[in-house]
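Can you give me the bound-state structure? Components:
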Amino acid sequence: MGSIRNAARVIGTVVIASLIAVGCGGDDDGGGGGSTPDADKVEVSDEAPEGEISVCMGKDTSGVHGPLLEKFNQENEGAEAALVELPESADEQRTQLVQRLRAKSEECDVLALDVIWTAEFAAQGWLADATDIVEEREGEFIASTLDTVRYDDKSWAVPFNSNAGFLFYRTDQVDEVPATWQETYDAAAEASGLVYQGSRYEGLTVHFLELLYARGGDVINEDGTEATADSEETRDVLQFMVDGIKDGAVPRATLTMKEEEARRAFENGSATFMRNWPYAYSLGQEAPRIRGKFEVAAFPSFGDDDAASILGGYNLAVSAFSDNPGGAAALINYLTAEDAQITYAEAATPSVLTDVYDDDAVKKSLPFAKTLLESIEQGRSRPVSPVYPQISDAISTNVYAALSGDATVDEAVTSMQADIDKALATF
Amino acid sequence: MSTITPSSTAAGPGPGDRPPPPRRRGRRAPSYGRSERRLAALLLSPSLVLIGLVAAYPIGYAIWLSLNEYSVRVPGLSRFAGLDNYEAAFAGGFWDALRNTLVFTVASVSLELIIGLAMAIAMHHAFRGRGLLRATVLVPWATITAVTAITWRSIFEPGVGFAPQLLAKVGIAEDVVWLGERGYAMSVLILADVWKTAPFMALLLLAGLQVIPEDVYEAARVDGATPWQRFTRITLPLLMPAILVALIFRTLDALRVFDLPAVLTDGSNGTNVLSLLAYQELTQNRLLGLGAALSVLTFAVVMIVSFLYIRFVGGNIRTLAKD
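Here's the bound-state model for the whole set.
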C-alpha cells in the first residue's frame, strides 16, 4: 500500500508542477507553412580559411573524404579540417545529429544532411542561412538538386552529392527498354518480374512518389499546409501497384525487400527488372549470373504522363552553432567544387555539378554517367516539410497496407490523406 | 525490468517507516530503537539516493514529458497538453501494439518453458558428452540478438533462405512470403525468440533440477512409481520455484522486446510491439510527448504484469520454499 501512496505523491507533484508550467507554455499559431527563425547568414570571405573545421558526416565508405580534407589542409595553412564519422545508416546519422544540435553542440561545423532533412533542420534553427553561397554558384549545379536545399525561400545548404534511381533490366530477357511503367509491368509479368524496395520504410515512399510524380499527383500542396493525397492520381498509382502484385508482375516477396534484398534477387537471376540506386550497377557486374546481361535506364513514364525520379543524396550545411562559419563555408565550397566532385565521381559518388558528367575519367568509372545525369535532371525532391518523417511514415504505412492486402486502395488513400493532414497539424 | 525492481523498492516502505515489533519496544529503551533506526536510514540513504537518481527521476521525467507537447516546427517551443498524448496514443497504434506484444509474450514464453524444460531434463541426466551438450545449447543465448534477427531474416528471405524452400518441398506454406504476411511474420518472430532464449530457460531450470535430492527419486522408485509419475509428482512440484522465477524473467523480457522485431520486420505485418512503437514516435517522428506517453504506457503494462506475478506467484514461491 505504501508504494501506491508514494506513487500517488509523485504523480501529484508532477501534476502540480505541470499546472504551474501551463502559464509558461507558448501558444502555437497553427501555421502549417514554412517559417524559420532568424538565422545568421554565412558569407564567404576572400581571406584564407583557418582554425578547426569539423565535418560531421556518415561513415567514409568511399574512402575519399579523408584524403580530400587532408588536401584542403595542405592548401590552406592554418586550417584544420577533420572528419567526425557518424554511423553508416541515414536514420542513425539523423539521430546523432539531432542529439548534438538539440544540445547546441559546437562539435560540428559542417553537417552532411540527407536531402530530406533540410526543412526539418532549418525550421529548428539548427542551420545557418547559406543563400549567399548558393546564389554565387547557382549555374554550376544541376537545377533539380537546388530544390533540395530550399525551404522558406532561402537556401540552407549546398548540394554535395546526388542520387536517382534506375530501372535495371536484363538484356537477355527483354528486347528494348519499356517506354512506360505499364509496359514494364506487362513485360515483367511475362518474364520473371520486377522487384523494388517494397518493405514498409522510406524506400517504399520513394518508389511510390516516383510513380505518383510521374502521374502528375502530389501528397501535399505547394506551401505545405494541406494534404492532397486523396486524388484520382494517387488512386491510379496505388491501384496500378496493387494490380502488379496481384497479376504477378511484381513478386510478393518484394514486400520484404529493401535495397540489398532487391539487389540479391536481381543478382540471383530471379527478377527481370529492378528499381534500385546506381550503386547496384558495379556490384551487378561482379555477380556471375547477370554479369554483362543487364543494363540501366532512367525511369519510364507513367502511361501518357511524364517520367519522374526522386532525388537522394546529401547536402552540406553550416551548423548554426559553429564557431567557425567562415571556415566551414570555405570547406563546403572546396568539397563541392569541380575538382573534389570529380574525385567523388571517380569513387562512384554521383556529383551535383553538370560539368562533371562530361569528364572522361568520370565517364570511365561511371559507365552510366549519361543515364544518371538524365535521371537526376528529371529528379524531384520529396515533400519539403519539417514534419517530413511523419509524412513519409503516412505514405509508406498506407501504401504497404494496400500492397499487402490489409486495406483496399480506397481505404488506404483515405487514410493516407488523414494521416498526412494529421502530420501537417503537428504542433 | 531493471527499472522496475529498484523503483518498487524505492516506493516501498522505507526503513524509517516500519514500526519495530511492539514487544521489543516494551523491553528496550525507545531512544535506542530510534538511534538504531536513524543509523539504518543513514546507511541506506546512499543507495536510496542512487535509486532515486537512476530510477525515480527518469520515470518522473518521462511522465512529465508525456504531459507536454514539444514543437517540431519552432525551436524550444513546448506547451502543456494534459492527457492529449495519451489520447493520441490510444487513438493511434497503442492497442494494436499491445495486442501484438501480448501475443508474442504468451506464445514465446510458453514455448520456451516447454522446450527449456525438455532441454534441462536432457542436460540433467548423466550421459557421455553431457558437458558438450550443455555448452552447445547455450550458443544461441550467447549470440547477440541483432545478429540472431539478421540470421533469421536471411533464413526466411524468399528465394535465398533455406526455410521457405524446405517447407515448400514438404508441402507446407508454399508461396508464402514469411516476413511479408501477417501471422507468418509473427511466427518467425516467435520462432527466433524461442530459438534464442529457450537455452536461458533451460539453464535456470537445470539449476532447479540439480537441487532436487536423488533419494526422493529412489524412494519413489522403491514404491513402484512410473517415470511419468516421478516427473509429475516429484520433479514438477519441486521445480516450481525455479519455473516461476524463469517465467517472471522471461515474461518481463518479452514484454519489452525491441531488437528482434526492429531488425526482422521493422514492425510491419502485425509485429509492431510497444517499445518499437514508442521508439518510432520518439526518434523518427521526434514527437517527444507522444513517445514518452507510449513509454509510460509500456512501463505501466510491465508494472501491472510484474505486480500480478509478485502478488500471486511470488506468494507461491514463499509457500513452496517453506514446504
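A couple of observations. The CA atoms of residues 76 and 171 of chain A lie 49 Å apart. Confidence is low (pLDDT under 50) at residues 1-33 of chain A.
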